[in-house]
Design goal:
Blueprint lengths: L19 H7 L5 E2 H5 L7 H13 L3 E6 L5 E6 L1 H4 L2 H13 L1 H17 L2
Antiparallel strand pairs: 1-3, 2-3
InterPro entries: HTH_HxlR (IPR002577), WH-like_DNA-bd_sf (IPR036388), WH_DNA-bd_sf (IPR036390)
Pfam families: HxlR
Organism: Micromonospora humi
């Protein structure tokens, strides 16, 4: 799912923004630090990832936890509402995977037609 040729970019269902569903899937296994999210989400700039995390937090899907102490750090985790999106996201990803070739063909046909119309 985190590969450059991932079908998620063709997913017609978007939660929050382009990267929100990927962030939610990254947090599926539990809390993660920003730097840990950057590994699977390497295509996302830090600025855009921060914006996505803030939007998800604002929508009540992600919780930002600041751990005080000698080594202060921040972790992000799914809220119960955010966790409830995992199933619909999985369904949308499965649909996209089943229709991957059709979606790519449609985009290619559209782009070819647009080039010829110029």
């Amino acid at each position: 799912m985190f590969d450059e040729l991932c079908p998620s970019s063709l997913n017609p269902i978007r939660f929050g923004d382009k990267w929100a569903a990927l962030v939610i899937r990254c947090l599926e296994g539990g809390p993660r630090r920003f730097s840990e999210l950057r590994v699977p989400l390497r295509r996302v700039t830090p600025k855009v990832l921060t914006r996505s995390l803030r939007a998800l937090e604002r929508d009540g899907l992600v919780r930002r936890n600041v751990h005080a102490g000698r080594l202060r750090h921040v972790e992000y985790e799914l809220t119960p509402v955010g966790r409830s999106l995992l199933e619909p996201i999985a369904v949308a990803c499965a649909w996209t995977e089943r229709h991957w070739d059709e979606l790519l063909d449609a985009r290619e046909s559209y782009d070819d037609a647009a080039r010829h119309d110029r």
